[in-house]
Design a protein that fits this description.
Layout: H1 6-25, H2 41-46, H3 52-55, H4 66-86, H5 88-112, H6 124-137, E1 142-145, E2 149-152, H7 153-169, H8 178-195, H9 208-236
Antiparallel strand pairs: 1-2
Helix pairs in contact: 1-4, 4-5, 4-6, 5-6, 5-8, 6-7, 6-8, 7-8
């Protein structure tokens, strides 16, 4: 199995600590203190509670352990390989980008649906971003669905994405934020398209947009220099001490 990489380890610890505090507070008079940390479209838009776009990712349902267990297990299984390839800083940037992006989708879609007072908690949006990144970088990796049925990561995430999309369209409540899941998938895909995949075997930091442009500029200058040298040889001829079969590097 994958080892627990540093970034994933700190995320697991932070989520576990927040869950314990929330679990204890929900059974005491301190419960309302955590209400301001859950994601509420009305609070974000009218009270500018922008911190909720981050804090909601570290809260999980205090009514049971299933919610946090599924999210943290998925983070451990699929986040570790990504951090091994990207490095801790790049992985954490991606994780929070997906989580915040999923939160923005929740705010926008719930506002359009007239559900501005709905509160959303959980790291599912960020985790879904991790899932799509894993499927793109390791498309043929085998995932055991329900710990029994082997399926390639690319097909698993494709099926999962279709289910999330259909669930978001026909959302009738049920306590699951399908908009957050869909937003995590969307922002994860956009991030990979913009900043590159950084597949195994390449530099951990990935090419990036600026690095890609710089490389193209260097290639263009090299090609231009080669053409100018060829023109020079045609005008002045090949030096006598140079073998016609020689190549200029």
């Amino acid at each position: 199995m994958f080892r627990v990489t540093p970034g994933v380890r700190w995320l697991l610890i932070a989520n576990a600590v927040c869950f314990v505090l929330y679990f204890l507070a929900a059974r005491s008079a301190f419960g309302p203190l955590f209400a301001g940390l859950a994601l509420s479209p009305r609070s974000v838009l009218t009270q500018f509670a922008l911190w909720q776009l981050v804090t909601y990712m570290f809260l999980h349902s205090p009514l049971g352990f299933g919610h946090i267990l599924i999210n943290m297990l998925s983070l451990w299984m699929f986040g570790g390989p990504l951090e091994e390839v990207w490095g801790t800083r790049r992985f954490l940037h991606f994780y929070f980008f997906c989580g915040i992006g999923a939160g923005l989708c929740v705010v926008v879609m719930n506002t359009l649906a007239g559900s501005m007072d709905t509160r959303t908690i959980g790291a599912s949006g960020a985790v879904y971003g991790v899932l799509i990144a894993f499927a793109i970088l390791f498309p043929r990796a085998i995932i055991y669905l329900f710990l029994m049925f082997p399926i390639e990561a690319r097909w698993f995430v494709l099926i999962l994405g279709a289910i999330v999309f259909l669930s978001a369209i026909g959302d009738t409540g049920g306590g699951v934020s399908h908009f957050a899941h869909l937003g995590g998938l969307l922002f994860g895909y956009v991030w990979l398209r913009v900043y590159g995949k950084a597949r195994p075997g390449r530099a951990r930091s990935g090419p990036g947009v600026l690095a890609s442009l710089e490389q193209r500029y260097r290639d263009w200058r090299l090609q231009r220099a080669k053409r100018r040298f060829q023109v020079y040889l045609k005008k002045h001829g090949t030096p006598r001490d140079m073998d016609p079969d020689d190549r200029i590097h």
